[in-house]
Specification:
By secondary structure, the protein is of the alpha+beta class. Helix content is 45%, strand content 17%. It contains 5 helices and 3 strands; from the N terminus they run βααββααα.
Length: 89
């Protein structure tokens, strides 16, 4: 869980929180509300890679080949225990 610090504290002790951000995100708050997170460069680069990989599209835009590939796909056996969650319904 990220440490939460008021913006005034963050500003006064930037160096301290810069070092802390190398280990964990630091939540910065203003008037009791988190307004942002200070993270290390590795976490930020990982976030950017994640965002770049995300895509959204309408299913009607899928080609017949893509639909066939999805229909043939199977879940990795390491996640088979998740089937039990679906069977509970």
């Amino acid at each position: 869980m990220a440490a939460t610090v008021p913006a005034s504290e963050f500003t006064r002790n930037f160096g301290r929180y810069r070092m802390q951000a190398q280990r964990e995100p630091v939540a910065v708050s203003s008037h009791g509300q988190v307004t942002g997170y200070f993270v290390g460069p590795d976490d930020y680069e990982e976030f950017k890679r994640f965002r770049a990989q995300r895509q959204s599209f309408a299913t009607v835009e899928l080609s017949d080949d893509r639909i066939a590939a999805i229909a043939k796909s199977r879940m990795d056996p390491r996640h088979a225990h998740l089937d039990a969650l679906l069977d509970q319904e």
